Amino acid sequence: MRVLQLIDSLEAGGAERVALNFANALAKEIEGSFLCATRAEGVLVKSIDNTVGYIYINKKSTLDIKAIIILNRFIKFNKIDLIHAHSTSYFLATIIKFLNPKLKLVWHDHYGESEFLDNRPRHILQICSLFFSHVFVVNSKLKAWAKKHLKVKSISYLANYAMLRTIPSETKLKGQYGKRVVCMANLRPQKDHLNLLKAFSKVIKKHPDWTLHLIGKNFNDNYSKTIFKFIKSENLEKHIFTYGSCPDTSTILKQCNVGLLSSKSEGLPLALLEYGLLGLPVIATNVGQCDEVIKDSYNGVLVSPNNVDELSKAILLYIEDEVLRHDFAVRFNKYIKTKYSKEVVINKVIETYKNIMV
After folding, report:
1. HSE-up (13 A, CA, CB side) for residue 273
2. CA atoms of 192 and 324, how far apart (whole Å)
3. 284-330 residue pLDDT tens
4. Could you give phi then psi for residue 99, rounded to 5 degrees?
5. What is the DSSP-derived secondary structure letter of residue 191?
6. Model pLDDT for residues 336-346, shown as the tens digit of each residue
7. Please, what is the end-to-end C-alpha distance for the chain in angstroms?
8. Rounded to two decimals, what is the model's pTM?
């Protein structure tokens, strides 16, 4: 079996890290594992295993004929049997499938705004879904949506899994050792950083020695400008730090003491699993599948989305109770290692591939 993971970019986002993790893990399990970045590369390029066949096609438009030809040649040359397309790369994958009818196509839906599915564009996706052999989804709401709107019968929920790699250390966090909160999320509206900033501004009134560290790509749009404007207007520059997209996740998390997400909408956030692997106590909003991994008041804290008071109280709870922080971190670490291992997820993926190839 020879499988290509197809993804728009290799920036450090959740879908991108999943595609990379799959390509690296499958290289040890199947005949050939390949990875293609279509529109942009990024910091994750450094983490591609040397056993993975990699190509970047520099796609510049929806119907970039040159990029389509390059990818089609790559697939034919490497005798690829199946494309596993992630997120919006399904359209290019469908074109390639049309050119190679025997090729199998799996789509992986990582849609980040699953709380707002009524607004999701779907007409082109519905047409493309006629060519899908299977659809993986990252939460139960996406599964229900896919069953209702897509022209494919084979749909399943697939949990993410985290895998932290040791790469040369690049990022040294500011702030005081032992008093750092981290949020790993690209600067997108559904991640609701403003809710977090407002909550943390309340926290530092009681604990000014604690700092917040935002790890994630800055798209230099109105949303990110609003974030930086808030930090400056509230005089938070000495308490809240931003770092952009960083590849050395393990190094960063080892420097932190609490892992947090304040999203309006999620699937199963890869960041949560990574927090767990590194032994951080966690706080997250109760959206998507977050309650699948966080058992509130047992191995972490769940709060309502867009609720500044709940979030600030949760952060204060950890700051002011070190024993609780330690106990929750140990339980969460054990739960993630038991339930979200690479082996469990990859075995399920391979089994699905085999059923498709029959």
Report:
1. 22
2. 26
3. 999 988 999 999 999 999 999 999 999 999 999 999 999 999 999 99
4. -80, -20
5. G
6. 998 888 888 99
7. 11
8. 0.84
